[in-house]
Every structure is written in structure tokens, then in C-alpha cells.
Design goal:
The structure holds two protein chains of two kinds. Chain A contains eight helices and twelve strands. Chain A is α+β, with helices and mostly antiparallel strands. In chain A, the strands form three sheets. In chain A, strands 2-3-1-4 form a four-stranded antiparallel sheet. In chain A, strands 6-7-5-8 form a four-stranded antiparallel sheet. The longest helix of chain A has 24 residues, at 2-25. Chain B folds into three domains: 2-332, Zn peptidases (Aminopeptidase, 3-Layer(aba) Sandwich); 353-483, Immunoglobulins (Immunoglobulin-like), CATH 2.60.40; 488-615, Immunoglobulin-like, CATH 2.60.40. In chain B, the strands form six sheets. A seven-stranded mixed sheet of chain B has the order 1-2-4-3-5-7-6, with helices on both faces. In chain B, strands 17-24-23-19-21 form a five-stranded mixed sheet. In chain B, strands 8, 10, 11 and 15 form a four-stranded antiparallel sheet that branches. In chain B, helix 4 (112-120) packs across helix 9 and helix 7 crosses helix 9. Chain B is globular and about 90 Å long. Chain B starts with a helix and ends with a helix. Classes of the chains: A alpha+beta, B alpha+beta. At the A-B interface, helix 2, strand 2, strand 5, strand 9 and helix 7 of A face helix 11 of B. The structure holds zinc ion (ZN). Residues 86-87, 90, 172, 225 of chain B line the site of zinc ion (ZN).
Chain lengths: 224, 618
């Protein structure tokens, strides 16, 4: 009996230690997967930024974000009626499908399996992935047993890349993948682009057949 | 004690010497504030600090206003704005603004040109647009440039808590002109070009926008960035040329040459990629104010380019100073000009850019007239043009080109269909100068069957560069109808108006009733004006509804034809022609202060005739 108890303590100890070990290499603090705002969410079609600016100014609309010509906004008192009057056709959205998080996901199994829930990969770190997903998608990952953690300081971390492209049109192509372009230089070797990119952007650059060189982060930093 | 105080007062600095600010290293935000305060205490009548906004984290965004009578707003003076550090990591941009401020203030007393420009202008300098980002960028600085782009030293955006675990909006993708294009900004919060949840969502961009819209007579804006040695002009969002490209390019070319002349660094004017929602596009697209983005030193390279050696600061400042001073001078100089309208004092810019880059004209200039005043087709008359000179001395090598045009084809000077009447080149003395050219009045009618022509004069002079706009914005003046339009019993005058702004706008048309004698009836059309329109898009109507606009709605580039009905009185005197003046203005459908952009007007000289047999037989 004594032995059994000791054994149990020992097992608990192991589990406890194991958990600590997980945290050290794991995904950090738990992520809050509740909507940022308890109010319902509406979606309307808009033309351009001026229109959103006017909606904010004239109707005190509270934008959440804009995607593909659709403005997502918090439903404030009377806003639905006002939008109706102006000829908008507000559509009610599920907040879990609107609000997003950028989080760490424990690296487990195949990446292709993980992204099946619809999250978008940003970076691959040694012990976790960094992804963007809606609350609904991230809840699904949690249900599948993945550990989720909040971002660490300076995350997601862009990688410095050097891309040599043949034509000026390619510079715009690289820009359209939202690489943070630091500089562009025309040289005899081609056009050299320096920029900051996440792993998923580097994948896309490679998918476009660009040669992407990831610049090393040196220990000996440059003296200004 | 009293004697001691007097001695102390005498020892107080009456002005800082140029070179007092130490540019051997970067100024952190506290030091920037100290330098601004020192400049103000050294030049209290010429400089003052104004808080123009508050950042998300509660830091004040400060502008240094530099002008004579600095504590008063002088709406007749032009305004020029210089800003830096939209992007936190671009520390060298901050240095340029401090250097410029110090140069101007320390040269006011000794350099007559600087003095004249500061007397003519209100110069606004905002060294740090993004204080939260800059503080964050300085937060872990240990004097060594990291090579890891995720180091806080290389933070670009502001510090908005995006609510999804990420931080920051790219303030130079948050401006409200062509905001939100995926081709030049990112919708994703984690990206460095994240544009924000809506245009002007950030208090930092709102602060600069308010500075822009509150400036009573804004002539130009420069937004310093780094790096890679570029001098960029609109458009940022598109690779196509903006309206007024030739003017913007001329300023850019001149600036690049001025930069290169100092240390031999030739800045490029091309980047081959687009940026939407950036500052200069808003200035040019929504305000038709010239705006430029110099990307300072060093030349192209990797991420450490944001962290240049401090030894680059001074040469960067030195080489960018002449271009900044030339722009300031452009904005401040008013030398040779012609009145747009009788009340024109030459102070305000008036006509604005058109899609072709030429200027719209005003048609009420008292400075262009003919002798005799009444014209017959085919007759040769004397055409007089009067030029004013504000420079204080003679201005040499002034050229004035005088054209006539069919106002139904184009209201711009010069335009491809305009006919050159003649040119004059010479000196305009301080008292001004009148030039006379012979003109053979055209035979026949214009394309709308009216004997109605307009004359415009275009001044060219090296000291009246595009920004002063005396050459291209203010001086392009027209003249009223020459031969009269005859109206029997009732008739229609047709006018056309184009939205030459790059944003949807409301057109306001006014008939000046003061020139119309009693008994005459002049009506704007009763039909909804939309029926006269060439096209139209749905979004514009929602914007108009949001603003409760009642005017005529025009998409960018859209033209509307407006028939104006005229009914002379039954007992009309055919020997007494009547001038009917019609004027248009555009009000952009945008949030914030909606500046009215005056367009051109028409003056029709109309002769009324009774509906009699002889008249019908004519
Ligand atoms: Zn920048």
C-alpha cells in the first residue's frame, strides 16, 4: 500500500515534470478563444476606403476589418436600420467566424493535416507553428487535441530574404505577396530585392519560381 | 540684483548658430523634443511647438511651426509640411527634419531668401509621426545594429493592439486615398504593410490629415522615409502617371539634381512596386497638393540599412537640404502673375489640375481684354495682357504665351486644340507690365454653334515654378465671350463640367444673379441632373446619402452636361447684351473637412431678341 502510494506520487511527479518539460519547449500561455466583443457582427459591401471613412464619421460605425470588399462591423444600437435606410444590405455574421487570432500551435503530425481546418500558416518555428485562424477554426484545432499558445515577443518573426528577379514586373509580384520590401536594386545579375518575409510567403515566392535566399542572423551584430 | 538681471538678460542667446544641434548621433524621442524646445526658446517669434494629435499609447504628436508672426495663423500665407518617421525604424528621417528646422531658423536673420520664404509661408515640421513605434524601436537599442529583422529596432508600424495577438498598423498604408488595395498593402494584421481596419483608423494618420486639412493654403508636403536613396512622387498605388505628372516630375527631377549636387548621390525616382493608402497619394489624389517621399540614405541593401552608421546622418541631411529649400521657395515665391478674377490678390492658388495636367482657367480676369471690346469676326484687334510683379525688383526672361480656344472642346490652357495668338518675352518691372498682341478674331462659330471663344495666357518663368502655381495654376486666365449668343424669346446655354479630382465629388453650380437685369429669367435644369450624365456608379450615391449631399454627383473624370434655360423679357432691348456668369465648384465626397475646390466658370454674353418675323427670318 505504501509502495502503491509512493508509486502514485512518483507517477504524478513524472507527469508534473513532464508537463513542465512541455511548457519549456511548448506553446506558452493559453489563448482566449472567445470573441473580442460580445456584440453581434454585421457584414456589408463597400466600394472603397472613403466609404468606410464616411460610415465611421456619419454613422459612428465600428469596423472590425475589411476583406474582399466586405466591411465587418460590430452591431451597435440602431445601426442595422440606418444601414438599411441607406441601401446597404447588412448580413449577420457568426462572431466565431469573424474574429481571428494569430497563435502558436504545437508542432504535431503533418502540417498539411493541421491546416486542413482552414487556418493559414505564417511561420514554422522549431517546436510550434504560427498560424492565423478564426476562433471557430482554432477551436476546431483545440478539439483535435492541438495545444495552442499566445505569441511570444516579436512574433511572428519576419525572416530577412534576398530575392533576385529578372524583371521589374517581378518586383510588383513580390510586393503582391506582401513581402516587406526594404530595398530594390538593379544590378548586372538581375534585380535584387531585400525584404522581410514569413515562411508562408517564402513558400509562395518559391512557388512562383523565385530563388529566395534566407539571410543569416549573425551572432556578431553590425556596429553602426 | 536688478543690474545682475539685466546682465543676465543681455547674455541670453538671441539666436542659435547653425550647427548647434549635434548630428554625430541619432536623437532619441526625448532628445528630439529637447531640440525642438531649444529652437523655440532661441527663436520665440519664429518657431513654436503645436500638439497636433495623440498616439494610441497617449504620446503627443508634435509639430514645429516656423514662420514670421508664428503665433498667429496667417491664412494668406502658403503652408508647407515636412514629416518624418511614419515608420518607426527610419530614424535618419527624423534627423533631416531637425536639420531643416535649424537651418531655416538660424538663417532667417542673414539670408534674405530664407527670410522672404519664411515671411511668405507657414512651415510645419513633424519630426515623429509615429511616436509609439519610435519609442518601441529605441526600447532595446544597445548601440549595435541587429541582423534579425524581428528585433524591435526594425519595428515599422505603430503599436496598435490588433486584438488577435499581433501589433501595429503601417501608417503609410492607412491614408484614405485608394486605401485597401491588396496590390499595395496587406489586409493581414501580422504583415508589416498591414493597412489597418479602415482608412485613417489610426490617430497618428488622423493627426497629419488634420494638419493637412487645417492648413489654410497648403502648397506642398514632404514625407521623409528611409532607405535606399529614392525621391518618389505620386502615384504610389498605381504604376500609371497621375494627372499633372509633368509638373510633379519637373519638381522631382530638380530635387534629384539638387541632392546629387551635394555629395554625388543620385537618388532614383522609380521603385517598380505599388503602395496603396500612402501619404503622397492622398495629398495629390484628394487635395491636388504636390507631395513627395524622399527615401534617405543609405543606398540599397539588407535590413541593416534601417540602421545606418551615424556618420551618414550629416551627409544625408546636407544633400537633402537644397531640395527642401527649393520646394519651400517655390511655395513661397510669388513673382509674376495675372489675376484670375477681379478680387484676386495673387495670394491663393486658384485653378486646379486637370486630368491632362493642364490648368483649368477662370474666365473673369480683369488682366486680359481687347480693344475694341466688341468684336467682329475676322477683325484684327489689340489683345492686352497685364502682368503683376510681387518680387520687389524687375523679373527678367518672362515669357507669356497667349492662346484662344473653343471652350466647348477644352477649358484648359494650353491644350492641343488651343491656337497660339502670340508670345512675348521680356522683363516685367516691379510696377508690372502690359503686353499687347494683335489678334485676328476667328470667323464662324465654335463646335456648339456659338460665336464664343476664350483667351488664356500662360506665364513661364524660372522663379515661378509649378508650386507657386502662378505659372500653371493661377495665371492661366481666360476672357469672357467675345461675340454674343443670341437668344430669341427663350434659349439654352449649354455648359459642361468635369470632375477632374481623383475622388467622387459633388458638383455645385451657381448662377451669379448680380449681373442679370430684372426681367430676365435664368434657370438651372429642373430634371434630375443625373439624366444629363454620361455614366454613374452605385457607391457614389451611398456616399452622397451619407453626407446628405444634394448636388450633382460625379465620379472621377466624369462629365455632366448642364443646359441652362434663358428667357429674356418680352420688351428686351437687343442693343443691351447681358452677361450671364455661371460658376462651378467640386466638393469631394470624403470624410473630415471637405475642401471646396473651385472650378472654372463661364461668362455668356447674351443678346435677347423679341420673337418677331424679322428675327425668325434671319
Ligand atoms: Zn518608410
Amino acid at each position: 500500500m505504501k509502495i502503491a502510494r509512493l508509486l502514485l506520487c512518483w507517477i504524478i511527479g513524472v507527469i508534473f515534470l513532464g508537463c513542465e518539460h512541455m511548457a519549456e519547449h511548448g506553446v506558452g500561455n493559453a489563448v482566449n478563444l472567445d470573441p473580442n466583443d460580445p456584440r453581434p457582427v454585421l457584414r456589408i459591401s463597400i466600394d472603397d476606403g472613403d466609404e468606410i471613412d464616411l460610415l465611421r464619421q456619419q454613422l459612428k460605425v465600428e469596423p472590425i476589418y475589411v476583406k474582399d470588399g466586405q466591411l465587418y462591423l460590430s452591431e451597435t444600437k440602431g445601426i442595422r436600420e440606418k444601414l438599411d435606410e441607406l441601401g446597404y444590405r447588412p448580413i449577420q455574421m457568426t462572431p466565431l467566424d469573424v474574429y481571428e487570432r494569430v497563435v502558436r500551435i504545437e508542432r504535431r503530425g503533418a502540417e498539411s493535416e493541421m491546416i486542413q481546418v482552414g487556418v493559414e500558416l505564417i511561420n514554422r518555428e522549431p517546436h510550434y507553428w504560427i498560424v492565423r485562424g478564426t476562433l471557430a477554426q482554432l477551436r476546431a484545432l483545440k478539439r483535435l487535441g492541438y495545444q495552442l499558445g499566445t505569441l511570444g515577443p516579436n512574433e511572428p518573426a519576419p525572416r530577412e530574404v534576398r530575392i533576385v528577379v529578372p524583371t521589374t514586373k517581378d518586383v510588383q509580384q513580390v510586393n503582391q505577396l506582401h513581402v516587406d520590401i526594404y530595398s530594390v536594386e538593379e544590378t548586372k545579375l538581375g534585380i535584387i530585392i531585400y525584404g522581410g518575409a514569413f515562411d508562408a510567403q517564402i513558400d509562395e515566392l518559391k512557388a512562383h519560381q523565385y530563388v529566395v535566399e534566407r539571410m543569416p542572423v549573425t551572432k556578431q551584430e553590425v556596429k553602426p | 540684483m536688478r543690474a545682475l538681471m539685466i546682465v543676465a538678460a543681455l547674455l541670453l542667446p538671441t539666436g542659435l548658430a547653425f550647427g548647434a544641434i549635434d548630428f554625430s548621433n541619432f536623437h532619441n524621442p526625448t532628445q528630439v523634443q529637447t531640440e525642438m524646445e531649444n529652437l523655440v526658446s532661441s527663436f520665440p517669434t519664429l518657431a513654436r511647438i503645436e500638439t497636433i494629435g495623440t498616439s494610441l499609447e497617449g504620446r503627443q504628436i508634435k509639430a514645429l511651426k516656423i514662420s514670421d508672426n508664428v503665433s498667429t495663423n496667417e491664412p494668406n500665407e502658403g503652408d508647407v509640411i515636412f514629416v518624418a518617421a511614419h515608420h518607426a525604424r527610419e530614424w535618419i528621417s527624423v534627423e533631416m527634419t531637425l536639420y531643416l528646422a535649424e537651418y531655416l531658423l538660424t538663417h532667417y536673420a542673414t539670408d534674405s531668401r530664407v527670410r522672404a520664404d519664411m515671411d511668405n509661408l507657414q512651415i510645419w515640421i513633424v519630426p515623429i509621426v509615429n511616436p509609439d513605434g519610435v519609442v518601441y524601436s529605441w526600447s532595446s537599442w544597445a548601440g549595435i545594429c541587429p541582423t534579425d529583422p524581428s528585433n524591435p529596432r526594425y519595428w515599422r508600424k505603430n503599436r496598435r493592439v490588433n486584438g488577435d495577438g499581433t501589433f501595429g498598423v503601417d501608417l503609410n498604408r492607412n491614408w484614405g486615398f485608394e486605401w485597401g488595395l491588396n496590390s499595395g498593402s496587406s489586409p493581414n494584421t501580422n504583415n508589416d504593410t498591414y493597412r489597418g481596419p479602415s482608412a485613417f483608423s489610426e490617430p497618428e494618420t488622423q493627426a497629419i490629415r488634420n494638419l493637412v486639412t487645417n492648413a489654410t493654403n497648403l502648397k506642398a508636403l514632404v514625407t521623409y522615409h528611409s532607405f535606399s536613396e529614392l525621391f518618389l512622387r505620386p502615384w504610389g498605388y498605381s504604376t500609371s502617371d497621375p494627372p499633372g505628372e509633368s509638373t510633379l516630375k519637373s519638381i522631382s527631377d530638380r530635387s534629384i539634381a539638387a541632392i546629387a549636387a551635394v555629395h554625388g548621390h543620385t537618388y532614383s525616382d522609380t521603385i517598380w512596386y505599388t503602395a496603396s493608402g500612402e501619404t503622397t497619394d492622398y495629398l495629390w489624389g484628394s487635395k491636388r497638393t504636390a507631395a513627395f517621399t524622399p527615401e534617405l540614405r543609405p543606398g540599397p541593401g539588407g535590413v541593416v540599412g534601417f540602421c545606418p552608421p551615424p556618420s551618414e546622418i550629416l551627409p544625408s541631411n546636407q544633400e537633402n537640404l537644397p531640395a527642401a529649400l527649393a520646394l519651400i521657395h517655390d511655395a513661397g515665391a510669388r513673382e509674376v502673375w495675372i489675376k484670375d478674377h477681379p478680387a484676386d490678390t495673387g495670394q491663393e492658388p486658384s485653378a486646379v489640375w486637370t486630368s491632362s495636367g493642364w490648368s483649368h482657367a477662370f474666365w473673369e480676369s480683369p488682366d486680359i481684354w481687347t480693344v475694341p471690346a466688341t468684336l467682329d469676326q475676322g477683325a484684327t484687334v489689340d489683345l492686352h495682357v497685364r502682368m503683376h510683379n510681387h518680387s520687389g525688383g524687375p523679373v527678367h526672361d518672362v515669357t507669356v504665351d497667349v492662346y484662344y480656344t473653343d471652350p466647348r472642346i477644352s477649358l484648359e490652357f494650353p491644350n492641343p486644340n488651343a491656337t497660339l495668338i502670340g508670345s512675348w518675352t521680356g522683363t516685367v518691372p516691379p510696377a508690372g507690365r502690359e503686353v499687347t498682341l494683335p489678334w485676328s478674331v476667328p470667323i464662324g462659330t465654335n463646335s456648339w454653334g456659338e460665336r464664343h471663344w476664350c483667351v488664356g495666357a500662360v506665364i513661364k518663368h524660372a522663379n515661378d515654378m509649378p508650386l507657386t502655381t502662378e505659372a500653371q495654376r493661377t495665371s492661366n486666365v481666360g476672357i469672357r465671350n467675345f461675340n454674343t449668343t443670341e437668344i430669341i424669346a427663350a434659349g439654352t446655354l449649354n455648359i459642361a463640367a468635369t470632375n477632374y479630382l481623383a475622388v467622387a465629388s459633388e458638383l455645385l453650380v451657381n448662377i451669379d444673379r448680380s449681373s442679370i437685369p430684372e426681367g430676365w429669367k435664368v434657370f438651372l435644369p429642373e430634371k434630375p441632373i443625373g439624366e444629363y450624365k454620361v455614366g454613374g456608379v452605385k457607391g457614389i450615391h451611398r456616399k452622397a446619402k451619407l453626407l446628405d449631399s444634394k448636388g450633382i454627383l460625379l465620379e472621377p473624370g466624369e462629365t455632366v452636361n448642364i443646359p441652362i434655360r434663358v428667357e429674356p423679357p418680352h420688351d428686351v432691348d437687343p442693343d443691351k447684351p447681358v452677361d450671364i456668369r455661371v460658376h462651378g465648384a467640386l466638393v469631394p465626397l470624403v470624410a473630415g473637412k471637405r475642401d471646396v475646390v473651385n472650378g472654372n466658370g463661364y461668362t455668356f454674353r447674351v443678346t435677347g431678341r423679341k420673337p418677331c418675323r424679322q428675327c425668325e427670318d434671319r
